[in-house]
């Protein structure tokens, strides 16, 4: 049966198609991109996010901003997914990816208005993306990734973010030390780095702890607060009276029988504590609850015990101390026990914190983050997590590129040069891609206080020279054109690659949509 296709929809459904659908989707994507554009760069501005409950978040982290926004438009949500993918894969560059995706959509809209078919735009963007990825590889610095370069990577990641009264230079040193501590033969074990925040002091008190920090409290007030050279037991076992496997009722006819039953329970719990002490255990981390009577007996043996420890934390402590989780605390093999140089409980603002340092398998480390307010420590935590991610990425990949917009201006130039050899309308899409990439250094210049057009012209000229390396460097109240490598502004190549790939993928997917059917 020929003719036009028939759509059978619920009467409450809404359908937008053709140019209207494309315009709506592109406008939504551009709006999300614009929301984070002013946060880009070392002089980017912060956003205040207020939830329905009145909770306030102050940040310039792109992923945090977009995830906190109540976005309903499906095309706009795709841009949010771009930032989330960027965050998950490489830990930084979320604003870069979002801004680039929005600009690619803006350029696609201009081409659609010139009657360039969406498929042609998609093909041109894909070709330009491949050229851009080759350019990133060519721009990788020919240098060993030593600690100095990693510190520059960390500083570049944190510049412009709220770090309180501690310098990014000091934080970068802490980050690099943490990453080097958990670096394995093949890759950095990023999960072995924990970040623990605690309000109550200036951010300059932030430090690296070679071990684990947790807010777990002792199970009994009479237990010691500090144990040196500690033998550690991590267990899922039961610290209360064992239950029978069958339902049974006991008849108690007199006080003597009741006393005997209670004595039997006490004896059972005491034997459990005695067995743990006889095994040479100094500290217990239990995933389950500890009966108050058992805790009392453990305290009499001078054993420090913690109850209701989080499942993941119990595993982490076992690994960090070189032990194993066991289900039988009263029958422990020596190889199941771990060791720590020091386990101590300290009070911070009325709250107990436990420090487990110098484990036998000593790979886990913690960044103990301080700050005067919740807002300060939260933003500092986000900045440190981004820095830890990019330093880990740079260490694993071994490739870094110039920052400050230098890589983007070189990508744009390479793509524009290659476009000259492409025939047909696809050339327009490739050139549009180059123009879109240049929005990043242009935005950096604008946020830094420079004239964006003049800065872009100067950047192109500087990068066309034989030296060919210049970016936007923040200086005082404005910026200047300078070599980012000499200024210590360096980014992992993987961050640039991921931003180009994810932004292009989202933009081309949105540009191809010409029909939106919404069911209610």
Tell me the fraction of residues in β-strands, as a range: 15-25%
Low-confidence stretches: none
Average pLDDT, rounded to a whole number, is 84
Biggest beta sheet attributes: 7 strands, mixed
Q: Quick one: overall form?
A: elongated
Based on CA atoms alone, the radius of gyration comes out at 29 Å
Q: How many helices does DSSP assign?
A: 16
The termini sit apart by 30 Å
- Tell me the number of strands: 18
Protein topology:
Blueprint: E1 14-17, H1 19-37, E2 47-50, E3 56-59, H2 62-68, H3 74-90, H4 94-113, H5 118-139, H6 147-158, H7 168-181, E4 193-199, E5 207-209, E6 211-214, E7 226-235, H8 255-278, E8 283-286, H9 292-300, E9 304-306, H10 311-321, E10 325-326, E11 338-348, E12 351-359, E13 365-371, H11 374-397, E14 400-402, H12 406-419, H13 426-437, H14 439-448, H15 452-464, E15 471-475, E16 478-482, E17 490-492, H16 493-511, E18 515-518
Parallel strand pairs: 4-13, 7-8, 7-10, 8-9
Antiparallel strand pairs: 1-18, 2-3, 5-13, 6-12, 7-11, 11-12, 14-17, 15-16
Helix pairs in contact: 1-3, 1-4, 2-3, 3-4, 3-16, 4-13, 4-16, 5-12, 5-13, 5-16, 6-7, 6-11, 7-11, 8-9, 12-13, 12-15, 14-15
């Amino acid at each position: 049966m020929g003719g036009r296709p028939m759509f059978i929809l619920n009467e409450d459904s809404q359908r937008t198609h053709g140019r209207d659908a494309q315009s709506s989707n592109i406008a939504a994507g551009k709006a999300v991109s614009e929301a984070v554009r002013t946060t880009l760069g070392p002089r980017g501005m912060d956003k205040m996010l207020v939830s329905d409950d009145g909770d306030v978040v102050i940040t310039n982290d792109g992923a945090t901003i977009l995830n906190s926004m109540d976005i309903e438009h499906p095309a706009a949500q795709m841009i949010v997914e771009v930032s989330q993918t960027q965050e998950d894969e490489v830990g930084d560059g979320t604003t870069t990816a979002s801004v680039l995706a929005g600009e690619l959509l803006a350029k696609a809209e201009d081409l659609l208005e010139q009657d360039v078919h969406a498929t042609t735009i998609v093909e041109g963007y894909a070709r330009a993306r491949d050229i851009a990825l080759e350019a990133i590889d060519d721009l990788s610095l020919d240098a060993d990734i030593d600690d100095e370069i990693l510190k520059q990577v960390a500083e570049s990641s944190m510049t412009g973010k709220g770090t309180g009264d501690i310098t990014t230079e000091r934080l970068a040193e802490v980050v690099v030390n943490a990453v080097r501590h958990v670096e394995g033969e093949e890759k950095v074990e990023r999960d072995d780095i924990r970040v623990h925040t605690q309000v109550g002091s200036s951010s300059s008190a932030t430090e690296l702890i070679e071990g684990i920090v947790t807010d777990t409290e002792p199970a009994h007030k009479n237990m010691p607060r500090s144990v040196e050279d500690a033998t550690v037991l991590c267990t899922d076992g039961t610290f209360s009276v064992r239950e029978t496997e069958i339902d049974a009722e006991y008849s108690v006819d007199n006080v003597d029988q009741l006393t005997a039953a209670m004595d039997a329970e006490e004896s059972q719990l005491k034997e459990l504590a005695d067995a743990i002490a006889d095994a040479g255990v100094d500290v217990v981390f239990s995933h389950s609850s500890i009966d108050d009577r058992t805790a009392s007996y453990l305290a009499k043996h001078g054993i420090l015990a913690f109850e209701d420890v989080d499942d993941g934390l119990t595993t982490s402590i076992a690994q960090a101390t070189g032990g194993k989780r066991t289900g039988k605390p009263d029958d422990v093999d020596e190889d199941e026990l771990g060791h720590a140089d020091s386990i101590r409980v300290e009070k911070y603002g009325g709250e107990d914190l436990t420090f487990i340092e110098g484990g036998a398998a000593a790979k886990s480390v913690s960044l103990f983050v301080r700050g005067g307010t919740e807002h300060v420590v939260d933003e500092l935590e986000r900045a440190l997590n981004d820095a830890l991610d990019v330093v880990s990425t740079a260490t694993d990949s071994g490739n870094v590129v110039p920052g400050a917009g230098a890589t983007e201006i070189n990508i744009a130039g390479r793509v524009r040069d290659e476009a000259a050899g492409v025939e047909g309308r696809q050339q327009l899409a490739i050139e549009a891609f180059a123009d879109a990439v240049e929005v990043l250094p242009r935005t950096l210049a604008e946020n830094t206080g420079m004239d964006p057009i003049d800065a872009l012209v100067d950047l192109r000229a500087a990068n066309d020279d034989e030296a060919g390396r210049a970016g936007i460097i923040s200086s005082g109240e404005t910026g200047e054109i300078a070599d980012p490598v000499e200024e210590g502004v360096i980014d992992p190549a993987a961050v640039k690659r991921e931003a180009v790939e994810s932004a292009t993928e989202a933009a081309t997917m949105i540009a191809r949509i010409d029909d939106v059917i919404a069911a209610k």
